[in-house]
Every structure is written in structure tokens, then in C-alpha cells.
Specification:
Blueprint: H1 6-13, H2 17-24, H3 34-47, H4 53-60, E1 65-70, H5 77-91, E2 96-101, H6 108-114, E3 119-122, H7 128-136, E4 140-142, H8 144-147, H9 150-170, E5 176-181, H10 187-203, E6 211-214, H11 221-229, E7 234-237, H12 240-252, E8 262-266, H13 270-273, E9 280-283, H14 286-302, E10 315-317
Parallel strand pairs: 1-2, 1-3, 3-4, 5-6, 5-7, 7-8, 8-9
Antiparallel strand pairs: 9-10
Keywords: DNA-binding, Transcription, Transcription regulation
Pfam families: LacI, Peripla_BP_3
Protein name: LacI family transcriptional regulator
Length: 322
């Protein structure tokens, strides 16, 4: 079926294409009567007319599209919250958010050829070539400066792991294990958090815990059995999904949580709040990070300086599992 054009709308409404353009683009100062405006809009709706994004970009000199580039990570509640808030804030400025899950098998340059975004938000550092290509194309780039700070990223992950271990140590546990995800894409996050757990255990003169891969989504029965036999009484899990798998493994072996095995996760996911028992976790400052991300995009749009990164720390949310 042929695409409906502004010429089709003009012909059906009995007006010129220029008049259609004035009305559908809300051109300031255009002298078009209310009756004619209503007829054009009704005709466009009836015919199913959708304006060309590329043509609109040429007319305005900018796009209405903000592309959020996600690395090749499994997404969870934290990323979902960030994107939801960003979408809501940018909608008030007439901007749309397109989420792109990047894969190394294809260059980001292909994406820029397909769409011309107003701004690109990166949740991880861009390759230097991709960054230069966007800058040459006049595309604003937000988010890479903070995420490119390798030291800040690693310190944050170690801090999360340290909070987990310190909470368990304060509860009297002396044999702690670490449940890491089995997805290699999460390796850098898991390594940082494990380093924090190990450092906190070493500071308390405890045995350095080994990391055991635990698939999310199925009971970690084998891992729990091995920990039980080794005298482990507490598990720091990479995130809440992994922690829920550990809880299911404990239930499979009839272990009482937290009396026989304490479990702590990360992310404060909704599912953890209704687990049996409710999951103790480390909550990241997602609301503050969401506000910062949205404010940074708006600052880039307005040509202003980006706001400082929020210094709100992660914190332990103590519930029944630990």
C-alpha cells in the first residue's frame, strides 16, 4: 500500500500543500482559519497520514529523537527505572526516546545512518570512533563522561559488595560465600562487587570467599548444598535475581533463612520484596541517578553545563533474609 503524503491530504482537503504544512507543523504566524485547520487535521487522521521524520528534521534543523544506547547487558529494574523517568521528562519537551541495545557485531555508524538523533545517551563508554562520528554529525552526546571514568565505576561496584559483606559480618556471620551470575556480559559488575565483598571479609579477618556461578531463574540447589557442607552461613549475591535463586535453593534443601543461611542481594527489585522471606538487599540511588540523567540531557539540549553526579550512596535495606 502506497504511503499517504501531504499532497494526498491537500488534494482531499481541497487546499494547497503549503497550507497543509502550515497546519500540521503548527507554523507560527500562519494565517489559516480555524475551520480549515480542523478540516486538514481531520483529513490527515482519516487518511492515516504520518509526517516524515527525516523531512521534519530538515525543516527544523534538529530531530525530535533521543537515542539511549544500552550496552550488551541484560536489563533489570534499575535500567528500566532510568529509562522510564527519562522518557517521561523528555516527553514534556516534545522529544521521543528510542532504546537501542547495541551489539558489537554491528557498528553504531549504521544506526546514525538509519536515524538522525537529536541527542544520544550512553550508559557505557562509546568507542572513540563512534564518539567522533557523532560529534562530527552534530549529535549531542550525554552520559559518557561519567561512565568513562573507570575508577569511579569500579569504586561504586566495590562499595556495593562491601556493604553486603559488612552487613553480614555485623550480623555475626564468619563464613560468607559469593554467588555471581553465570552471564559473562555481567563480568565487570560482578568482579567489582566480589572485590568489595572480599575486601570487607579480609578487613574482618575472615576467610576470603570464593565466587560460585549461579544461574538466575532456577533454584541454586547444588551451590547451596556445597555451601552447607562447607559451613557457609551467609551468601552475598550479585543481584536480587541471583539472590532469589539462592533462596529457592535453600528451600529445596529445607534450610531456614536466615537462621541457617542468610542471603543478601542488590537492586531492591520488586520481586525481592514479596519473596519468602522478604529479601535483604542493597538499594542503589536510582531516583537520583534518573534525575541526573534526565537533567543532563536537558542541559545538553539547552547548551548548559551538565549537573554534578549525585553523591547519594547505596544503602542496605534490611528485611527477613538477612
Amino acid at each position: 500500500m502506497a504511503r499517504v503524503t501531504s499532497a494526498d491530504v491537500a488534494r482531499e482537503a481541497g487546499v494547497s500543500r503549503t497550507t497543509v504544512s502550515y497546519v500540521l507543523n503548527d507554523t507560527p504566524g500562519a494565517s489559516v482559519s480555524r475551520v480549515t485547520r480542523e478540516r486538514i487535521r481531520e483529513t490527515a487522521t482519516r487518511l492515516g497520514y504520518a509526517p516524515s521524520a527525516a523531512a521534519r528534521t530538515l525543516r527544523r534543523g534538529r530531530s525530535d529523537l533521543v537515542v539511549a544506547v544500552l550496552p550488551d547487558w541484560p536489563t533489570g529494574s534499575v535500567v528500566d527505572t532510568l529509562l522510564d523517568h527519562l522518557t517521561d521528562v523528555l516527553a514534556t519537551r516534545g522529544l521521543f526516546v528510542l532504546v537501542h541495545h547495541h551489539r558489537d557485531s554491528r557498528s553504531l555508524a549504521d544506526l546514525w545512518r538509519a536515524v538522525t538523533p537529536h541527542t544520544v545517551v550512553g550508559l557505557a563508554p562509546f568507542a572513540p570512533d563512534d564518539l567522533r562520528t557523532m560529534q562530527r554529525a552534530g549529535i549531542r552526546v550525554v552520559g559518557t563522561a561519567q561512565n568513562a571514568d573507570e575508577t569511579s565505576f569500579d569504586v561504586a561496584q566495590r562499595g556495593i559488595g562491601a556493604l553486603q559483606a559488612e552487613h553480614l559480618v555485623a550480623a555475626g556471620h564468619t563464613r560468607i560465600a559469593y554467588a555471581r551470575p553465570d552471564d559473562p556480559r555481567l563480568g565487570r559488575f560482578a568482579d567489582g562487587r566480589l572485590a568489595g565483598v572480599r575486601a570487607a571479609c579480609a578487613a574482618a579477618a575472615l576467610e576470603v570467599p570464593a565466587a560460585v556461578p549461579v544461574p538466575a531463574g532456577e533454584p541454586a540447589a547444588a551451590a547451596v548444598a556445597a555451601w552447607r557442607d562447607a559451613g557457609v552461613t551467609a551468601v552475598a549475591a550479585y543481584n536480587d535475581d541471583v539472590a532469589l535463586a539462592v533462596l529457592a535453593g535453600a528451600a529445596a534443601h529445607g534450610l531456614r533463612v536466615p537462621d541457617e543461611l542468610a542471603v543478601i542481594g542488590v537492586d531492591d527489585a520488586p520481586a525481592g520484596r514479596v519473596a519468602a522471606p522478604p529479601l535483604t538487599t542493597v538499594a542503589q540511588p536510582v531516583a537520583q541517578q534518573s534525575e541526573h540523567l534526565a537533567a543532563s540531557v536537558l542541559a545538553a539540549i539547552d547548551g548548559a553545563d551538565a549537573p554534578p553526579w549525585p553523591d547519594d550512596p547505596a544503602l542496605v535495606v534490611a528485611r527477613g533474609s538477612a
